[in-house]
Specification:
The chain has 258 residues and is α+β, with helices and mostly antiparallel strands. The chain has two helices and 19 strands.
């Protein structure tokens, strides 16, 4: 029975790959005759990471695709029709792990031990029915000795009513760029010197010419989610987790730990 189950799974995987290949062939054909790339989504996201480093990337999708397969795709020369699927959702292949969060309509991609050869174009992708091309969002990742834009911690946490701070580092070439703190899927951002967002949390941004610091006070549970430090077209993802208010017992225990 175990062998039969494995054979069925391998057959389904081969069928899935043929289906995706057919869609890519159609997309490639359209790409060749029109000269345009068949992708959907907003402007290309640009990210940089230090050689040997790791990165977690959130990929959002429409709720109607909750039951659809998701995958992470790579092509060094930025042509989606020729990209190679590195991993599907909820599997790990080599140094790539993809985890789907259907209750929140996004999946995360974790890439580890990144090297210069990993520089190139990537796509967050959702398989669609029929022979139409898949829904995709394009990113370009550059792996270099010193990233243009990065964060001290890519995952921060705080308690309801408390504060958190995030340090966003940047190279000298970005000193004159507008510094922004944005929430994914939110068209508004916080920028240095002013607040322009639909969120109610108090946010302050200070810039010292080498890095800018984001301070969020009066945290709410709804502030949990993915954000990014943004300079020009470059961004660095940060995951914020807000938990409930500390109880007196937890407060005492944390005090002892300190």
């Amino acid at each position: 029975m175990y062998i039969m189950k494995m054979q069925r799974e391998e057959t389904m995987q081969r069928f899935d790959k043929r289906t995706v290949s057919l869609k890519k062939f159609i997309a490639c054909f359209l790409w060749l005759i029109t000269g345009t790339e068949c992708t959907t989504g907003s402007a290309i996201r640009l990210l940089t990471v230090q050689t040997g480093g790791s990165l977690i990337i959130p990929c959002y999708y429409d709720r109607k695709y909750t039951e659809h397969k998701k995958y992470w795709c790579f092509q060094a020369r930025s042509a989606y029709p020729y990209c190679s699927i590195l991993a599907y959702a909820n599997e790990t292949k080599g140094k790539v792990s993809v985890i789907d969060h259907p209750d929140q309509s996004f999946f995360t991609v974790t890439m580890r031990n990144l090297q210069y050869k990993d520089t190139g174009a990537y796509w967050c992708a959702v398989e669609t029915e029929g022979i139409t091309w898949d829904v995709t969002e394009k990113l370009h990742l550059t792996v270099q000795s010193a990233p243009d834009v990065s964060v001290v911690n890519s995952s921060v946490s705080g308690h309801e009513g408390g504060d958190i701070s995030v340090q966003c580092l940047y190279s000298s070439g970005y000193q004159n760029e507008v510094k922004r703190w944005c929430r994914y899927k939110d068209p508004s951002c916080y920028t240095v010197g002013r607040t322009d967002t639909s969120q109610n949390s108090s946010v302050q941004i200070s810039d010292d010419g080498r890095n800018f610091t984001v301070l969020m006070t009066g945290l709410r549970l709804t502030d949990s989610g993915w954000y990014f430090c943004s300079l020009g077209k470059q961004e660095a993802p940060v995951q914020l987790t807000v938990t409930g208010v500390l109880t007196l017992e937890e407060f005492d225990r944390n005090g002892e730990d300190c």
